[in-house]
Amino acid sequence: MSRARNNNVRGPTSALTEFLRASGITPTTVARRAATQQGQQQAAAGLSNDDSQQQQDEAGSSSGSRRPSRAASRRGANRRESGYGSDNLDEDDEGNREEDQDENGADEEAVEEPERNSPAPAKKRKLTKAAEAKLKAQEKKKAKGKGKKGSDDEYQDDDDPYTSLSKSMWSSGSKPPVGDFENCAKCEKQFTVTKYTMAANPGPGWLCHVCAKASGKDPFKKPAAPRKRKAPGDKREVVHFVENRLPTLVNLCIKVVTQHIDDVESLGDIGTLNVEAIAKAMAKNRSLTAENAKLFYNTTNSKLVLYDATNLSSPAFESLVYLNPNLTSLRLDFCGQLDDPAFKVFTTSLPALERIELLGPFLVRSPAWKAFIKAHPNLEGFLITQSPRFDLDCLRELVSHCTGLKELRLKEFGKMSDDFLDEIADNLGGQGDSESILEYLDISSPGGESCSDAALVNLLSRIGGSLRCLDVSKHDLLTNAFLLGGLQQHTHSLESEWENPPLVSLDASRNPELQTDALEAIMKHSGTRLESLNINGWKDVEENGLRDIGRQGKEMRKLDVGFCRNMDDFIVKAWLEGEDVKGRKKGGCMELVELKVWGCNRVTANCPKKPGLALHGVESHIIRRT
Hints:
Residues 1-179 are annotated as: Disordered. This is DNA repair protein rhp7 treble clef domain-containing protein. Residues 178-217 form the DNA repair protein rhp7 treble clef domain. By secondary structure, the protein is an alpha/beta fold. Helices cover 38% and strands 11% of the residues. Strand 13 (505-507), helix 19 and strand 14 (532-534) form a beta-alpha-beta unit. Helix 15 packs parallel to helix 16 (418-428) and helix 19 runs parallel beside helix 20 (543-552). It is elongated and about 135 Å long.
């Protein structure tokens, strides 16, 4: 099936097509020539068929009665070549018989008598039931196609499918190049072709922009953007109940000063707390540089805290010491560029220094540490984190020269071992009747292997009596022997029968094996004074243990019970309002200001709330439709 030539669909044309058109060879001339050749072939075939038919009639009519003549078969072949379909074979046979009777009427009369005595000619072959059903199905399919797509007669013609024109030849030509001049097919005015030029409908030709708009089409209309598929959202809805409070005037001023810190010439007399708040705000975006760091320097400073010294170079640290010579306490976080030359200035120019806290002094070597320790025998606080070059010899110098240490932190030391603990026990432990004065010890997160139970028990036997804070986290080899032989005998513990003051803050999160008994022991010992409690991950705590928090935690202000599966709205109500005991409300965490219930699926958005309480992690189980 071929489409009508007046269709406005045009495709690209090749250079050969353009050359043939320029030479006078057009689709019309090609079709005319093909039709002329086909007519000549049919005329020649008809003459030869007549001669052969006469010779066959003279030879005998018996063979002609048994099979169709060659002329009829050739004419049938010519018809099939010229475009007759195979569905009209029966009609072609009838037409062939009529033509044979007209052309050979005289011959048939001459042999009429013999034909009567001969067998009857072959009758028209009847179609089988299967063939009839197939033919009817094809007709129904054609009728249905016409109903859906409209009349297909507009696209049918009698051209032979092998000699018909190419579809690319139907169009009047491809779109002319941009910048050429063309005449409008409607108003016949000359215009310049652009990428917005539209073809005339019906063609051929092109329309100017005015005529294109008049036809109801906007040539400048942009194609509609494809619809973007929405990303699948979270099917749960987490609700946070937080009371929004306006920032204070002090907070607003600190925010403005931090944003324009490079334009500030001096902070003035704004108080130590406000200066520290500005330093914390600047650490959030790491805006502290060698230029604006001088705003925090003063020769009268006795304490200096910089929460992010990442951008300070070695000369900047030297300037810090020269401009703050009377410091007694110094804290520098993220001081990775502090090296031996700058640390040598620390040794010689800070004679009154009593407490130093450094985070990340990677470049300071062992000789520089030893020189600094010898120059400051009055140190009371030595808190160092992440110093891979601080070795056992440095520790020996420290514990032998600085015998008045009250705070010691050797956190994340790659060379930490049992030898470190033995040196601390031998030099900082009590001698005879005297007791140790060490109150704070942090040896957590060793870079190598964990320290042993024996070394820690020996250390606690010497300094445990004065310790108020001990951090031995990430020492994976510790067992119950350390708890029973070290903590229980020489330091304070959580058990109520020990003479240990109640805790104010406790973080026991990520311990899924701890259950109700552990929580009840904590509340029995420290419940009346406990202000902050984190039991996130205690998945098997029972409801009675959770309610015990509300019965005894009168001073509780911050509470994290995430992933405690038995948490529900009624427990939250008991914490906020107290429990009904004989018609009276008793207990309750009346000072509670922050509650985290992440992963507690039984706590809903309808749980009780109160003014001033920040409630985080409530899952309302509302499915979002995407």
